Here is the input.
Amino acid sequence: MGQAGMAEAAVRYLRAAGAQPVEALPRPELRCVGEDERAPVDQAEFRRVLGNFATGVTVVTAPATDSGAPPAGFACQSFSSLSLDPPLVAFMVGRTSTTWPRIARAGVFCVNVLGAHQGELCRGFAVSGRDKFAGVVYDASPASGSPRLADALAWIDCTIHAVHTGGDHLIVVGRVDDLGASDMDEPPLLFHKGRFL
Here is the structure.
């Protein structure tokens, strides 16, 4: 049984057992990480060890909110499914990201799951300070109008549901409004030990 199957079984069990819905915790106040909260772990060692965990690679996009401005988008490897009922996904973004405020203003986003052939496209979205969409083929996703990148393996169109703090990152939860996958029989783009696989 896959993750989705286990999640469905857990939801059925909790409903049958008469479980009460869990109330959401109050939203934490956004603040900087205090000196007393910093772990005694070297950042380079943290990255080296965690780099052993291979992740899929996505590009998170949002429509332009200012007239004449390009859409927003950034390369993101910290993406995950979160909940089946309701359908939720999550991604993490650095608090210093210059793209995140534009996505937040839009209130919607589309996660584009990249294929193994899209390493160069991903590199383009990992650079800040330029029009990341120059020369990129895309259309508007059906629910949010966010850029849906051509030849992506899958896309997940979302509305921002919640934002939580997570140290020097934000945890963005999106409610899935629409989604789809291509018919391409191609492996995903993976990131492992600082490079694409």
In short: The mean pLDDT is 84. Residues 134 and 144 are 21 Å apart (CA to CA). The domain at 55-196 is CATH 2.30.110.10 (Pnp Oxidase; Chain A). Helices lie at 3-16, 43-50, 100-106, 119-125.
